[in-house]
Specification:
- The chain has helices at about 40-45, 65-70, 85-95, 115-125, 175-185, 190-195, 200-205, 225-230, 275-285, 290-295, 310-320, 345-355, 370-375; strands at about 10-15, 30-35, 35, 55-60, 80, 105-110, 135-140, 145-150, 155-160, 165-175, 210-215, 235-250, 250-255, 255-260, 265, 325-335, 360-365, 380-390.
- By secondary structure, the protein is α/β, with parallel strands linked by helices.
- The chain folds into 2 domains: about 10-230, Spore Coat Polysaccharide Biosynthesis Protein SpsA, Chain A (Alpha-Beta Complex); about 235-390, 60s Ribosomal Protein L30, Chain: A.
- α5 crosses α7 and α9 (about 275-285) runs parallel beside α11.
């Protein structure tokens, strides 16, 4: 990890908005997503990221009771009161951090409850790189852009080349972004209103900011329809199974991790029986066929390819449908090699490939007590269960 182990990073959660476009009885950060407020989901998601040492929330005056209900049990410092604009609220939050002066600050919207811990970590690492003042999450723009004049007349198609949609968190070196926000507070008119996010404030101050590829599911709740759609998610559970026989070699690949062994596994790709079973489970959860449908073993382009591509593809299809992985459970069945010494590395590898937190992956192993082909040490079998959430039709 590029971020030095002794460096500190505080997450500043901006929850001071009134949500004028939301249209609900409460500001969106306090509305219920499932059985809990949106803000509570966001706090849990950010706290799960390695490298985040402290959380500080900025709220609007008068929202203290809503905040207390949302943050109960998190043992957070007293909230900071925001200002009349998001920019002022962020500045208030930054000023409150001056006594501790962390090395980095990760500024995150309270209404983005689905941010991945792995994406936050990637943003921290990018911001800590030499010669960089900050890093922001984002996704490439895929929609066609049109410039529209008065009367809704389309005047031109705008190239989307090199255009990205900015997300949060946006991570900065603390001293630099504090100075930038203080300078921006002195601006007026259109120059001030043009600074629509913290990266814009940093860019205006001449700071070097880099973009970090984020995830499409790190969406921001803006309207009550957004919340209603997210609240009507259904849970699906699907099963995957795969088996590969042994072949001459000196290692097997399981869960993306090479494990020394007296033999290898036979297969068209790298024969990673663990990732194959997980891929089938995720594909099954969205009714998208099986691994052979997407990666036919008769196709030479998949010869010897790393199986992480298969699982990433399946997860990508899930995300395109607006879904997310809740949990992946894997059981390996073999007499050898021993799985225990490699269990943690495999779980971490699977989590990185799937883009989920480590605690959403379980890796187990068992034997068949000498029975069957695995008992005779002829190969390895894998069973996988994928639990996902996906919008109802």
């Amino acid at each position: 990890m590029i971020l030095d182990a002794v460096a500190t990073c505080t997450a500043l959660i901006v929850a001071g908005g009134r949500g004028s476009r939301f249209g609900g009885p409460l500001p969106k950060q306090y509305a219920l997503l499932g059985t809990q407020p949106v803000l509570r989901h966001t706090l849990a998601a950010v706290r799960a990221a390695p490298g985040i040492g402290r959380l500080q929330v900025v709220i609007a005056p008068g929202d203290e009771l809503h905040y207390q209900a949302s943050a109960a049990g998190f043992d957070l410092p007293a909230p900071v009161l925001g200002g009349s604009s998001r920019q002022q609220s962020v500045l208030n939050g930054l000023e409150a951090l001056v006594p501790e002066s962390p090395d980095f600050v990760a500024i995150h919207d309270a209404a983005r409850p689905f941010v991945r811990a792995s994406d936050i970590t990637a943003c921290l690492e990018a911001a800590a790189a030499s010669g960089v003042d900050g890093a922001i999450l984002g996704v490439p723009l895929l929609d066609t852009l049109k410039r529209v004049e008065e009367g809704h007349a389309v005047s031109e198609t705008v190239s989307r080349h090199n255009l990205w949609r900015a997300q949060t968190p946006q991570v900065f070196r603390f001293a630099a972004v504090l100075k930038a926000h203080r300078a921006a507070a002195a601006l007026a008119g259109t120059e001030a209103t043009a600074l629509t996010d913290d990266a814009a404030v940093a860019e205006h101050a001449g700071l070097r900011i880099v973009m970090v590829p984020g995830s499409a599911d790190n969406r921001k709740i803006t309207t009550i329809e957004d919340l209603q759609q997210l609240s009507t998610m259904e849970t699906r559970v699907a099963f995957g199974f795969d088996v590969h026989g042994f072949a001459p070699g000196s290692a097997v690949v399981l869960g993306g991790i090479p494990i020394p062994h007296a033999q290898s596994l036979s297969g068209h790709s790298d024969a990673d029986v663990a990732l194959h079973a997980l891929t089938d489970a995720v594909l099954g959860a969205i009714g998208a066929g099986d691994i052979g449908t997407h990666f036919p073993p008769s196709d030479p382009q998949w010869l010897g390819v790393s199986s992480d591509r298969f699982l990433r593809h399946a997860v990508g299809l899930l995300v395109e449908r607006g879904g997310r992985i809740v949990h992946l459970d894997l059981t390996l069945i073999c007499e050898a090699p021993r799985i225990g010494p490699h269990r943690e590395a495999m779980a971490g590898s699977i989590a990185r490939i799937a883009g989920i937190d480590r605690d959403r992956v379980s890796v187990k192993a068992t034997t068949t007590e000498g029975l069957g082909f695995t008992g005779r040490r002829e190969g390895i079998a894998a069973q996988a269960v994928a639990t996902v959430e996906i919008p109802k039709h």
